[in-house]
Design brief:
The protein is of the alpha+beta class. It has one domain: Glutaredoxin, CATH 3.40.30. Helices cover 27% and strands 21% of the residues. The protein has 5 helices and 10 strands; from the N terminus they run βββαβαβαβαβββαβ. The protein has a 7-stranded mixed sheet with strand order 3-2-6-5-4-8-9. A hairpin with a 5-residue loop joins β8 and β9. α2 runs parallel beside α5. The longest helix is centred in the N-terminal third of the chain and has 18 residues.
């Protein structure tokens, strides 16, 4: 497991359309995932200890964000041949057992992750209502540890601000997680 951090937010970069299969068996695209006041696009996976440590808080925060018009979508771009836990069947199992309040999509070719410049799981991209990037930071100060009840909710606070002002916070702390497990390149 290689730990890495996300780059600094490149404000106002437009979201890029995609068409990916969800664990629900249907195809999802940028427009179908977008909320009235924004979109939180997350690159996650099933096996990553960083994601496992925060998944309950991701679910809590995405439910709260939906109430203020910010939808969320999760994309799994890892090579499932490297980690069986990241297979489509296991994605379906975890989404069902944890009752994900967002679509969970598979990026089999990894093209969406490459296009977005995703580097790790979790990697969060927060867009405003115009689908312009306003947040590329962490969920909160925890990493692979459980968090204190009163921990500052960086991502939730940033997305709430974006829903109201369309602008993300100037100061952002990068997300940290496991590197994306890329498919072997064919040269």
């Amino acid at each position: 497991m290689v730990s890495t951090q996300t780059p600094i937010c490149d404000f106002n970069t437009p979201a890029i359309d995609f068409s990916l299969k969800g664990v629900d068996g249907t195809m999802h695209n940028l427009k179908s995932c977008q909320g009235e006041n924004g979109l939180l696009l997350m690159f996650i996976c099933n096996h990553c200890p960083y994601v496992k440590a925060i998944i309950d808080r991701i679910i809590r925060d995405t439910k709260a964000l939906k109430k203020i018009g910010v939808n969320a979508v999760a994309i799994m771009s890892n090579n499932p041949n490297e980690y069986e836990a990241d297979s489509f069947e296991n994605m379906q199992k975890i989404a069902t057992s944890m009752n994900f309040p967002f679509p969970y999509l598979i990026d089999e070719t990894q093209q969406v992750a490459k296009t977005y410049g995703a580097v790790c799981t979790p990697d969060f991209f927060g867009y405003n209502a115009d689908l312009k990037l306003q947040y590329r930071g962490r969920l909160d100060a925890s990493h692979k540890e459980s968090a204190a009840v009163d921990i500052k909710r960086d991502l939730f606070d940033a997305m709430s601000q974006i829903a109201i002002t369309r602008q993300g916070p100037k100061e952002q702390i990068p997300s940290m997680g496991c590197s994306i497990k890329w498919l072997p390149s064919v040269d």
